[in-house]
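Dear U.,

Please find below the material for section 3 of the report. The protein was modelled together with pyridoxal-5'-phosphate; I have listed the sequence and SMILES used, followed by the predicted complex structure.
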Amino acid sequence: MACFRRARTRTSDEVLSSDRWGGYHPFVARFEQEFAAFQQCRFGLSACNGTVTIEMALEALGIGVGDEVIVPAISFISTATAVSRVGATPVFVDIEPDTFNIDPERIREAIGTKTRAIIPVHFGGPMADMDAITAVASAHGLPILEDAAHAHGSEWNGTRAGSIGAISSFSFQNGKVMTAGEGGILLSNDEGLIDRAREVLDQGRRKGEGWFFHYSLGTNYRITAWQSAVLIAQLERLPEQNARRARTAAIIRERLRDLRGLHFQRVPDAARVHTNYLLLGWVDGDRGAFHKNLTGAGFPCTPFYPHTLYQNPLYREHKNCRVMPCPNAEARIKDAFWVPHRALLGTEDDAMALAAAIRNSTLS
Ligand SMILES: Cc1ncc(COP(=O)(O)O)c(C=O)c1O
């Protein structure tokens, strides 16, 4: 911890004493390289948040008006609105009832003549079934854009999140397992895709060309040197924190293995290394009472999203989107809950206390 503080102070001091506090400080490129390497990817492009990174990825893939993009019915809104904001149409597809991740079979059924990409979200940390999704995508010649906002360090059969799809997006927003308050990054092994995204992010400029030369309609989505300095330090401690959360989650799951009426997110063996961004589950009984009991006992808990993405006012009555049947997503919004990752960073005793509180909240 002391080492982390020293590293952070040193990098922050270097930004302070430089004349480049914005997106051109060398720390920005350094963090991009370090994070890309950590996720087993070749190229990175950091940005001001993990919403515009999805938009830029779609633009880099050439997706726009008249195109459809497949997204899960359960995610944070950005996964869908990024599609809408580039002028394309989100197609909402059901999740698997137990992993909470997009169901590859339902993806297959949703693909049509206008489909241009698939966006799986690695929901809560464990990666979506990338073998099955890659098989569907390849059969139809579609690129995969991984929304890896919950998956810093998550793996699918030993391969890190963000390195399987054509391009991937991570968030460093305040609630994430690595944060600079705000921030995001795009990763890809295809330098061309990253260069196209960079052109959007940096006012239509091109590498090696003049500052006042703008080749396409871009904007300014750059991250700052301050955020990059913080993220360099955050990345140093991520492996230890991911391991600590995994230990806590394993204790809780083991202690509650035989508890009736409570189910945890199923984590396929291929996805067993993950962030534990959310300890996710669902209850058979009264979710409201469970939530009240657990928070009343002093533990953080969120009674899941209040609706599927397509039930948001923005997409209500299936306006500006296409909706496939989503019975699993509609079931989970009624009975699911999550405990946020911060509650999993404590000691073994803290883990046992949380397990006991979940047990009591389920029974009472
Ligand atoms: C799955 C998912 N995608 C995208 C985002 C958007 O990230 P940001 O808040 O950095 O814009 C989030 C963030 O909360 C998220 O949970």
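For the text of the report, you could mention the following: The CA atoms of residues 154 and 274 lie 4 Å apart.

Regards,
Y.
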